[in-house]
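Task 17 of the worksheet. Students: predict the tertiary structure of the chain below and write it out as structure tokens. Keep your answer in the requested format; marks are given for formatting as well as content.
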Amino acid sequence: DILGMSFMMLLLMTISILFPYMLNDPENFIPANPMVTPVHIQPEWYFLFAYAILRSIPNKLGGVIALMMSILMLFSQPILNKNNIQSNKFYPMNKMLLWYFFMNIILLTWIGAQPV
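Model answer:
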């Protein structure tokens, strides 16, 4: 494991030292024009699901409430589950809901990356 990690770190360091611009976003090389708004403005990939939720609702307050409700749903799950059995083996519905959650996040991320 140490040999593999050392090789990967050496490879990443070599790429970042010899070719520093290889891993950058190509949008960063376009000269800035203060008179024109850039066409391709979108958040980083890990915020795209939230961006899709905000973009789907035209009302600003409604979008913020929908985003907060989507986050609060995750925090409400441990409170709502009051069963004594701790293993997921006894709850087959949980496995289906987990995969539904992952597919939902992937779909929202893809939708957030699409142009308006």
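Marker's comment: The first helix runs from residue 2 to 18. The CA atoms of residues 40 and 115 lie 8 Å apart.
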